[in-house]
Amino acid sequence: MLILGTLNSIGFLALGLPYAVLLGFIMALLNIIPYVGALVGSLIPVLVAFITKDSFGYVLATMGVCLLSQFLDNNFITPKVVGSSVSINPLASIVALIAAGLLWGVVGMVVAIPMTGMLKLVCEAVPRLRVWGYLLGEEKEFAPSNGKGG
Q: pTM score, two decimals?
């Protein structure tokens, strides 16, 4: 949320939007709400730009800042931050989020990362599954099993 709020605030400050920092962090706070949070959070700065600026270009630029910050957050920042907190690589966390979201919807997306983290721990503990634990985890030294239980 802090990274997204900072990104939003920088973009809004560059556009000269009034209350740029406040709007940036409100948008980041509302981003917690699945699906509608990003939309509602983006509408507020767009409405402020529509009311306070005299050109429609500012409204489009504000929409662009909202879209760009959401794109960066959803595709790069969140998978990296969440994945690194449970030592899952970003690609595995994105795949887990998409698969769980398709299977179980919003609830699946909430439990996807913890379930993937538990799966990674199980794979690392079972000698024959260590390769899968390595693939799920972040880059580190790989110690393959010698087939003798260790």
A: 0.62
Q: List the alpha helices (DSSP H) in 31-140.
A: 36-52, 56-72, 78-85, 90-125, 130-136
* Domain range enclosing 20: 1-78
pLDDT digits (tens, 9 = 90+) for 86-111: 788 888 888 998 999 899 988 888 78
Contact (CB, 8 A) for 143 and 130 = yes
Q: What are phi and psi of 115, to 5 degrees?
A: -65, -40
Q: Which of 127, 108, 114, 17 is nearest to 62 (CA)?
A: 17
88, β-bridge pairs: 137
Q: Are 74 and 90 members of one domain?
A: no
